Amino acid sequence: MRAFLICCAFIWATFQQSNMQLPIPATEANCCEGDILLLLDSSGSVTNYEFSRFLHFSATLLRVFSLGRGHVRVGLLQVGTESNLEFGLDAHTDQRSLQKALERVQQLQGDTNTENALRDAQQLLRAAGGNVPRILLWLTDGASPGDVGQVMSELKAEGVFVLAVSAVHGNYRLLRDAVSPPSESHLYVVDIDDIEIITEDLRDAIIKIIQANRLQVVNLTPRTATLQWRPLLTAATGYYQLQYYSVRNPAIGSLQYLSGDSISVELTHLVPDTAYTATLLPGPNQRLFNALSVNFSTPSEVLGPTVVSVPDSGPCHIRVEWGPPQVAQVLRYTVEYSAFPSGRVHMLTLQSQQNFSLLTGLVPATQYLVTVSALYAGGKERAMSVRACTKEATAALPALLDLQLSKVPQQDLWQVTWQAHQEHLKGYWLTWEQDKPVDSISKPSALYLPPTTGATHLSHVSPGSRVCMSPVYSSGRGDGICCSAEEPSDWRRTFP
């Protein structure tokens, strides 16, 4: 019996040593960015054999990832009577260091205080910060984990993805409720002797969560695309080789070499409405990271005009402008305008270089519908319309004929009176500076008055303040007149 036990111990030691010394992959996957915290059941309910198998499984599962900030960070927290942080998320930046650390892990034994360990895991993942995905991978025999539902719910609510691997004698319902959906890819219940069969499936589930789109399109137009990536090289460590081509016709593309400190590039002379593939490679050392690729499609060419505006108008004219300029694509522009809703239609034909037109001979105080059309070389036509009003014709005489300002005796009031031509008037706009305390700054005040008004009173007018009045038409303000609060009461209007 003793010989048998010695033989078993020898076989077990040989098995443990041979299985933990895993080869380091020649190239590591640069596909992902995120934090993975292993929560390993290290209590007395887990046999030494199960514990070793969990460690071997973890080493195999993780050995394909590039490690460190900007890649994948791995931490290990053991569950026992008291939890034990074997190593934190920033402890290992390469696979050799991680693999050796997993070889050195010793089982804690003791009780299975999973709830306490989960609270510690929650604090660690909160402190990790950043905006990368976070995963809690729970490795357990499933025996009496305690009341973990509340903590697991909090973790998931905080954005942590909970995955679990359990020996077959675990509480399946508790585990199913603990993991993040879908449980089909985030919960694995397997005999400890067959745990290797789930390696690829679990790794794929992890990659799906933390896969990083390092090469991305940040600006896309019909003929240009700006690609951006996180810094992976420096000018001293190498250069980038960028290749892009049309998916439909690979002959349409280009090859560029970029400095190692580049983080973006603009691709030009693209074809509208075309699918492209872009690939970024490191040079000269191809093992620094795997190729980064992105697929994108240029949008269709937007036919103009897309903007039509009226920056200026008068009683008998309207200036209309449009854009964007598309000289190479447009054959000519046509401008049609008519009094709205049923006036006679007038038409102008303009060259493709022109992006404005002055419409003259219009009727004052009238609404017009203006339509700008662009005819393209391919026969397509795009039109856009805008409504605009001509201004009202001003009378030969000024709208305001007289403005008087007089102090009301023994009162802090000033009487304002005026005379005006009220035809086409919508009202008056009166402005003045109010009297303020010495330590304050005088601020302008304004008052709108109906067109039938001929007088009003103002209070708290600052000494020397200029009181100004402007006529208001439907098209806007007209020229105004002003007078001063210091002038005699019989002072007459002045034009500014």
The overall number of domains is: 4
Low-confidence runs: 1-27, 489-496
Gyration radius, in Å = 40 Å
CATH architecture term of the largest domain: 3-Layer(aba) Sandwich
- Give the end-to-end Cα distance, rounded to a whole number of Å: 119 Å
Keywords: Basement membrane, Disulfide bond, Extracellular matrix, Phosphoprotein, Repeat, Secreted, Signal
Protein name: von Willebrand factor A domain-containing protein 1
Subcellular location: Secreted, Extracellular space, Extracellular matrix, Basement membrane
Signal peptide: 1-16
Structure description:
Pfam families: fn3, VWA. Keywords: Basement membrane, Disulfide bond, Extracellular matrix, Phosphoprotein, Repeat, Secreted, Signal. Promotes matrix assembly. Involved in the organization of skeletal muscles and in the formation of neuromuscular junctions. Its main location: secreted. This protein is of the alpha+beta class. The protein has 4 domains: 178 residues, von Willebrand factor, type A domain (Rossmann fold, 3-Layer(aba) Sandwich), CATH 3.40.50; 85 residues, Immunoglobulins (Immunoglobulin-like); 83 residues, Immunoglobulin-like; 86 residues, Immunoglobulins (Immunoglobulin-like), CATH 2.60.40. Helix content is 18%, strand content 37%. The protein is built from 8 helices and 28 strands. The termini are far apart.
